[in-house]
Amino acid sequence: MSARPSSPYRYRLSGLSVASEFALPMRLADDPAKAAPPDVTIHLGEVAESLATPAHRGANWTADDRSFLLNLPQIGRFLAEDGRKITVCPAPETPLDDILVFVTGTAFAAILYQRGAMLLHGSAVVREGRAFVFCGASGAGKSTLAGALVRDGATLLADDVCAIEQPPHGGPLVHADGRALRLYPDSIATIGLGDGVGARVRRRIEKFHVRVGDASDAPVAAPLAAIYMLAHANAAAPAGITPFPLLDAAQALLHQTYRRRLALAYSDRAQPARRAAALLGHVPVFRLHRAFEFGRLDEGVAMLNAHWAGLR
Amino acid sequence: MTDIPPGLVWLASYPKSGNTWMRVLLANLLSGADRPADINNLSEPETLVSRWRFADDMLVDPDMLDRDELDALRPLHCDFVAQDRRQAFFCKTHDRFWRHAGEPTLGTAARRALYIVRDPRDVAVSLSHHASLSIDAAIAQMIDPRAHSAGSLLLPYVVGDWGAHVAGWSLQRVVPTKVVRYEAMHGDTPATLRGIIDFLGGHASDADIRRAVDHSRFEELQRQEARKGFRESRPGQARFFRSGRVGGWRDVLTRAQAGVLERHFAAVMADHGYRIDA
User: Which among B64, B77, B80 has CB closest to A205?
Assistant: First the structure.
């Protein structure tokens, strides 16, 4: 199947070739002349409020064996089908560019899970050929830490979604999801990334796409060397890097699975528990407790540099 | 064995009113164990005010939503979870009951709510210690109708002023609610707990209640915090479980400071039995 003329925009996203009817800002563009036939196509179209006979549901989503439908009132509806096709239906009066983050986030994650992927909710950087992943909830400071590490000489691999590939031979790989971070102005100022600031992520959100590095100098995938679970240092857990006991590490990987309920909805293919166990056979998982003040960002970077030197 | 019917129960309060102590009491009651519950592992680690939980259930990150969009999705989230529960789920919140007239912040499907109210003059003292504020700054926050939270782990929420918070929860008729005075918890903890269990339609023996109360004594909470810290304390906070006193404000607030709260909240204070010295 070849890209239809109606899908002129071509990208590489989390290891897949994508053809889209509309532009996806700050994603890794693919040359249409050289691009492989698309794995996934993205279109505008009508989307119902919910699936007719869902096997899984949440307050605002439904899923069955083939399809996933996300319904965000006043934002739009998103349908991901068969691991191949995303249909986007903006709510009335809602500009398309204001809702693309849900296309490249949740809808694309559904596509990947329908194809049996493993996704962690984290950002990733590459240092001397090794990929390091930082997991944490929304607000944990994943992107800010990744930005600080890039300032320190690392290369950005992924900002929010880390697709982990486990080849039959050799160790696991992390796939790139772009060359941009999504950051708040205070983070941008603290790290000093003002040069790369692009558009707002959404019109009424004070978060910006920030380009760090360019597509030409960076890998599209890198071998995964370690995973860090970010947490705030607190009275019961002082700053530092500590290894996870194995059982806790498996639980933490599930806890930080990107859109965990989607992985569970497609668990026949995605097999999140088995994947997590297999990953732990190759990759160590650590807790990274750190002070959360911006002024102490460098402490986290220093802690990690020291840790990586010892991970040989 | 303590038994509470399934469903979502809000543990609601203005901050620094005894919410954590109530959670400790309920955790000890439900555990039925012969040793005190761990203050760092009290209940479901992820409540309905946690960013992680919202993203996990709703499949969108809260920081990708503006306030109106988030406010529109939260009731859907809470109601979905409330209708989905097969056991009792006590969920802490400092949210106001009403977002706007006729729009409950947290939906309508919770089975019950416990609203803990504490003398606002004691709240001011506790808040100043907890948030490292002067007494005057704490009072200014309590009378600010636009006061709101700013935490990176919890969803952003509006607290509003103390009086509207108390009135909003205690006067609404959407979710059956029992108002529990912090002072009553102090004065007769077993009787207060018994009243709560009856209100929830649960069962607990007198021995269960006695043990839960004993395992939740303030000295026990302080002992655990001194030994292992408390994960909910604020960075730089010396102690979360500081004094827990009733009426301590008399030794701390000036007459003028107490007067600010009394003038702002006279009617609500009177409704809940907080006397204003003539």
Answer: B64
